[in-house]
């Protein structure tokens, strides 16, 4: 099982890199990605519809003229996801899910949190961990994909370790903030080592708005 997953990941990454090399990234592609990043930023910072318009323009530009680029990015991202999931979880007792569009919201009632890996092309993730029921000492959550809007609320009593990255976008974790290009935040709560219940969050998107609040 482990060898098969590793071989699948290598094949996906190799296929994506091959397509990407054959069709080089142009200025037009970069401009489209900047439209998408600016759209996500405007959606988060302003109540008007400007952000949605910018996001739509960027997505239309990319998909209409750069199908091979999108395909290569998706293949590479999915391959990296398989590799990271296997590395992050100590055994095979975890839930793994892949989807094109994902809207995962847990904020209304108590919910059970288990070792999980999720990958999506476009994902909207909202988790309120003050409502979670944990059945183990340490739980690992892997969230990865191409475009992501991630909001996670973590109560102070819960020990949390965060590794978050976004090629384009912004990351907010506690008092740490990174905005722009090639963002990465590694953060750990002061009570992580001594806490009876711990959560490890591994969040990575190519274009993302990642917000992890400690309350």
UniProtKB/TrEMBL annotation:
The keyword Ribosomal protein does not apply. The chain crosses the membrane at residues 12-41, 53-82. The keyword Transmembrane applies. Keywords: Membrane, Transmembrane, Transmembrane helix. This is Uncharacterized protein. Residues 8-89 form the LiaF transmembrane domain. Residues 105-212 form the Cell wall-active antibiotics response LiaF-like C-terminal domain. It comes from the Bacteria. Pfam families: LiaF-like_C (PF09922), LiaF-TM (PF22570).
């Amino acid at each position: 099982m482990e060898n098969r997953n590793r071989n699948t990941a290598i094949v996906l990454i190799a296929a994506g890199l091959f397509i990407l090399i054959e069709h080089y990234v142009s200025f037009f592609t970069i401009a489209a990605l900047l439209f998408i990043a600016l759209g996500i930023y405007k959606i988060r910072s302003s109540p008007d519809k400007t952000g949605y318009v910018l996001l739509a323009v960027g997505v239309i530009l990319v998909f209409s003229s750069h199908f091979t680029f999108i395909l290569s990015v998706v293949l590479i991202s999915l391959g990296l996801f398989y590799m990271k999931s296997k590395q992050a979880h100590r055994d095979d007792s975890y839930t793994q899910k892949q989807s094109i569009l994902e809207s995962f919201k847990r904020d209304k009632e108590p919910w059970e949190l288990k070792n999980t890996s999720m990958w999506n092309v476009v994902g909207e993730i909202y988790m309120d961990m003050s409502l979670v029921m944990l059945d183990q000492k340490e739980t690992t959550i892997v969230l990865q994909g191409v475009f992501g809007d991630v909001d996670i609320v973590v109560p102070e009593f819960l020990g949390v370790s965060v590794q978050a990255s976004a090629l384009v976008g912004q990351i907010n974790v506690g008092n740490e903030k990174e905005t722009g290009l090639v963002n990465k935040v590694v953060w750990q709560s002061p009570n992580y080592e001594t806490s009876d219940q711990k959560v490890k969050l591994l969040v990575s998107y190519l274009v993302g708005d990642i917000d992890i609040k400690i309350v």
